[in-house]
Amino acid sequence: MKKNNSYTELSNIIKNSKKILLFPHINIDGDAMGSSVALCRVLRNMGKEAYILVEDEISDNLTFLNDDKYITENQDIISNPDLTICVDCGEISRFPKRTEKFFSGKVTMCVDHHGTSDGTADYNIVEPEAAATGEILYRLFKEMDVDFDKEISNCLFTAITMDTGNFQYSNTTFISHQIVADLYKYGLDSNVVSINIYENNSWEKIQTEALVLAGTEFVLDGKIAIAKVTAKILKKTGCKMNETESIVSTLRSIGGVEIAALVKEDSKNNTRVSLRGKNYADVSIAAVALGGGGHVKAAGCTIEKNIDEATEIIKNELIKEIVRYNEN
Fold this sequence. Notes:
Shape: globular
CATH architecture of the largest domain: Alpha-Beta Complex
Largest sheet: 6 strands, parallel
CATH superfamily of the largest domain: inorganic pyrophosphatase (n-terminal core)
């Protein structure tokens, strides 16, 4: 990974760019969404032409952030971007259908907090110690002397609350709380954000969660919990795949479970995997081994196999992690 650039360097590059595209990772989560929309709003407030380029659907509980239509799937919306920025991801495998467009930027940039980030852009700020990319952007905005408003604050709060598990995960620090405390000065409405994120589940999602959890497989005396989201289940309930992500957190919450894996049938021969660790397990090791990435306690990957084959592959990798810890 390249050495980090300074906040001042990134600020100057952004200020000197007019047409900017943002690239959050596939299966966009709250940090990627909140960070991207916050940055896009800041850029537009500066008079820039800016859009967030995605390649899959946005989860219903995050669409409230997109009121001003920041998001598009149209890769030609800006033909020759001055600057392209990958947000909350640093590996091109995390935006596979947009890779060519990302490198079409006259200058490329990466703002991320994943320890597995490649940092292959021209300019990079990758800070694994940050609880969320939203924290990094907060510091960048301060360097840029941004006029914070309610919308920017709500977006950054979304990023931080979701990547810290509503401030419950071990990555939460006093800095996380300090940043959020400061955001209240600019109109942050944490109640509205929290209701949209955590209390906006569809009945279809609740039914799906029940069916998925009922099929959970427990491995190594319950230390590993693996559940599958199949196309058959989604067809039965009418739920969207992007609504199922939180199921992995429910799996992790089960007593005795150290690693939770949610295996999702993306297509007949393509499976997405979300991993969560609780106390000692480093799930990023398994994710990286299978071409993915992430954090010690939260990671993911895509396996080009059918869901049953992918489940066996990820199970074996997770068993290795439990064994590795016990041997040490």
